[in-house]
Amino acid sequence: MGVAHLTMATDIIADEHFEAVGESGLDERNRVTLSKAVEQLRKLIGDAALSRVHLSVAINSVGQILLTPHIPVPAHEAWLLRNPTALSKVREGIAQAGRGEATRAGSFAEFADDDLTDE
Questions:
Q1: Are residues 43 and 79 in the same domain?
Q2: CA-to-CA distance for 36 and 34, rounded, in angstroms?
Q3: In what helix (H) or strand (E) does residue 56 lie, and over which residues does it extend?
Q4: Is 66 helix (H, G, I), strand (E, B) or coil?
């Protein structure tokens, strides 16, 4: 299954306020432990999303390193991100549901066997 990368996650710094959450050093294989940062990330996005996180790595001219978490989008779902009208409607629906404005449409089971091909 393909994964769509629509933008580089490092293109935007969404919030310039950073909070120190710990300190780490390189081990013998040049790896860094990010346990405390991962715990904070888990609080922000939850366990289910955390298992799918990838980190984009950026470094500036003075050696500061910025890790930006992102979750790859499966290619079969990427169409939504490329369709501003559909994405807007999905976001509107999510906002309405968050405000308690969603209504039950009932079962769509009667359409389950419909032929979805255009004729």
A1: no
A2: 6
A3: strand 54-59
A4: strand
Of 37, 71, 31, 35, the C-alpha closest to 55 is 71
Q: Which two tokens stand for residue 100?
A: 């308690």
* Residues 62 and 88 placed together within one structural domain of the fold: no
DSSP assignment, residue 26?
B
- Which tokens hold the place of 111? 């359409």
Same domain, 16 and 40: yes
Domain residues for the domain of 67 are 3-71
Give per-residue pLDDT as tens, 27-39: 999 999 999 999 9
- Up-side HSE of residue 91: CA atoms within 13 Å toward CB? 8
Taking residue 9's Cβ as centre, other Cβ atoms within 10 Å add up to 20
Q: What is the pLDDT of residue 116?
A: 62
Size of the chain, expressed as the number of residues it contains = 119
Question: Where are the alpha helices (H) located in 1-112, listed in sequence order?
Answer: 35-45, 47-50, 79-82, 84-98
**Is the pLDDT at 113 greater than 80, yes or no?**
no
Residue 19 forms part of a structural domain = yes
